[in-house]
Each structure stands twice: as structure tokens, then as C-alpha cells.
Design brief:
DDH_dom, 11 strands, inorganic pyrophosphatase (n-terminal core), 17% strand, 39% helix, globular, DHH_sf
Length: 320
């Protein structure tokens, strides 16, 4: 991927803008927030005269990375819009209508929608945060890294690599991290935030270990209803802390956590150690990485259909 060429294109648009809005996908993870906050801080350090806004719903569990802004329609309309870490336009988290043909898109997910006046997608990158590091540390880059940007981008990389455990981790990943560490990154503080859960979430983890259904193909599935969340005193965004639990159980190859929403729909979280799951998410209006994807579905029948498709994918994986 030609990072230098796209850096010049993206930087030229930023230079022309007085005001910039940075967006990302709904139900954000550390990479979505980390890349969003990281890019804002890079722009602030490079172009202190520019105004940069971050928009989107903010889960309390990720407040340690940064906070979002509230702006008016007029301010939004007057801004350059950059969308990070979002493969398809329906998942862009913004309180205002977004014209996808006019935005700058930077992402590492496989394209679900081809959109953006400028679109740079690198599916070989571990994270969008890693991509922003490559733009900033490119030999021809004029962007300025700061301590605030480095901490946010480090959190994003750690989050999307599963603390460097996932296959997406590469020599480039470690090279970018080594450069970030020159900016006083709070490694232990970020790790503490990521691995520490409230007592309520830890108790929910016990429930999941005891009640997840495991098929003969090594597929685990757990449905959390609104009643479960109330029983354990859990906010919906806190369930991110339990998504990876089945990864520690011997014999499980892929799994789904299905969380009922207040409107009766189900947020789908799919993870895998090998079987491909993003095509399943795409079948149900979602998307993501081959081994980590998500969607939102309307009924328990569709949840069961997804579990069936997970079993098909696991069978295919096991028979290779």
C-alpha cells in the first residue's frame, strides 16, 4: 500500500479545512476510539489553528481513551468529514446525515461499501490505529505525534490485536509500537484499563462460563437478555469485557455472544480461532474481520440461524 501517496492526498484536504469532524463505527471498540482520538491529537499537534470534533456514542468503558464532542448541524456542515475504522456506511456513528461520497475513509476492514472522495483501505494492517501511525511516521510525513496521540493509538493497536495475540500482529505492528513508546505511553495504565472489570462484569463472566452452549463442532453460543443485564447490573456497553471469554476454553474454535437490546433486537459479536466469521456477519447486515465480526439482528430465530452458520464454518475449518 502506498502510504506516502495517500498521506499527501489526505493531508492536502486537512490543510484546506478550518474545521474537521472525525467519525467511526457504532458500538466502538478501542481501535475505533483510539484511532479517532489519535488522529484528532495528531491534527491538533500539527495544525493547532484547526478545530477538530469527535462524534459518536461513547461507552463508559472506553472513556480512558478520550471523550466525544457535541456540535450543531451548522458546525457539521462546515467541516471536512473523516470516517475511520468503518467498512460500511450504515454503521457510521453520527447524529447528522453523512454524504459518503464526500468523506475521507481510512480503514483496515475489508470493504463492505466502497465510499469516500478519498478511500484508503489496508486489510493487511492490524488496526486503523496502526495505519495512522504509518501515515505519521512515514519518511515524507509532516504530521506531528504527541503524547496524547501516542497513548490513544497504542490503546487502539493493543485492542485490535488482542494484546498482540491475533494473527494480524506483524513486524510492522511492533515497529509502530516501538515508535509510539518514545512518546511516554502509559503501557501499564492502558493494560489495567483493558483487563480490569467491575465485580458485576466478573460475575456475568461466571454465568457465561457456566451456561454457554458448546456444539460438537467447537462452536460456543451465549444469549444475554435484558433480564440478564438487569440481574447482574450490567450496562450493554460493558459486555465488551466478556466477548473473548470462550477463547480460553479448550475445544472452542469460534463463538457468538448475542446481547438483547432495549428495542428487542440482538447485537451479534462473533469471534474465532480459525473458522471464517465475517462472511456470516455480512449475511446478516454486519461485517468485520475474518476472525472478529459483528451485526445486529431482529429475532432469536435469526440468532439461531447465525449459530447454524457458525457450525457450518467450523465444520469446513475442521475438515481442511
Amino acid at each position: 500500500m502506498n502510504y506516502t501517496e495517500f498521506f499527501k492526498k489526505i493531508d492536502a484536504e486537512i490543510k484546506k479545512a478550518d474545521s474537521i469532524v472525525i467519525l467511526r463505527h457504532e458500538s466502538p471498540d478501542p481501535d475505533a476510539i483510539g484511532s479517532q482520538v489519535g488522529l484528532r491529537e495528531i491534527i491538533r499537534a500539527t495544525y493547532p489553528e484547526k478545530t477538530v470534533y469527535l462524534l459518536g456514542e461513547m461507552p463508559s468503558s472506553l472513556n480512558y481513551i478520550g471523550e466525544m464532542d457535541e456540535i450543531t448541524q451548522e458546525q457539521f456542515d462546515a467541516s471536512l468529514v473523516i470516517v475511520l475504522d468503518c467498512a460500511n456506511t450504515p454503521r457510521i456513528d453520527c447524529p447528522f446525515e453523512v454524504d459518503p461520497s464526500k468523506v475521507i475513509k481510512i480503514d483496515h476492514h475489508p470493504d463492505r461499501d466502497v465510499y469516500g472522495a478519498i478511500s484508503f483501505v489496508d486489510t493487511d494492517s492490524s488496526s486503523t490505529s496502526e495505519m495512522l501511525c504509518r501515515f505519521t511516521f512515514d519518511a515524507e510525513s509532516t504530521w506531528v505525534m504527541s503524547k496524547e496521540a501516542a497513548n490513544a493509538l497504542y490503546a487502539g493497536i493493543v485492542g485490535d490485536t488482542g494484546r498482540f495475540l491475533y494473527p494480524s500482529t506483524t513486524t510492522i505492528t511492533f515497529s509502530m509500537v516501538s515508535k509510539l513508546l518514545e512518546f511516554d505511553v502509559d503501557i501499564s495504565g492502558i493494560a489495567y484499563q483493558m483487563i480490569t472489570n467491575p465485580v458485576s462484569v466478573s460475575r456475568l463472566a461466571g454465568y457465561i462460563y457456566q451456561n454457554m452452549e458448546i456444539s460438537d463442532n467447537g462452536v460456543a453460543a451465549t444469549v444475554l437478555t435484558q433480564e440478564h443485564l438487569k440481574t447482574y447490573g450490567i450496562e450493554e456497553d460493558q459486555t465488551h469485557g466478556v466477548i473473548s471469554l470462550p477463547s480460553t476454553v479448550e475445544g472452542i474454535h469460534c463463538w457468538g455472544l448475542f446481547v438483547e437490546q432495549p428495542d428487542g433486537t440482538y447485537r451479534v459479536n462473533l469471534r474465532s480461532k480459525g473458522p471464517i466469521v465475517n462472511t456470516i456477519a455480512q449475511n446478516h447486515g454486519g461485517g468485520g474481520h475474518p476472525l472478529a465480526s459483528g451485526a445486529v439482528v431482529s429475532t432469536l430465530d435469526e440468532v439461531q440461524q447465525i449459530v447454524s452458520e457458525l457450525n457450518d464454518s467450523a465444520k469446513e475449518f475442521l475438515n481442511k
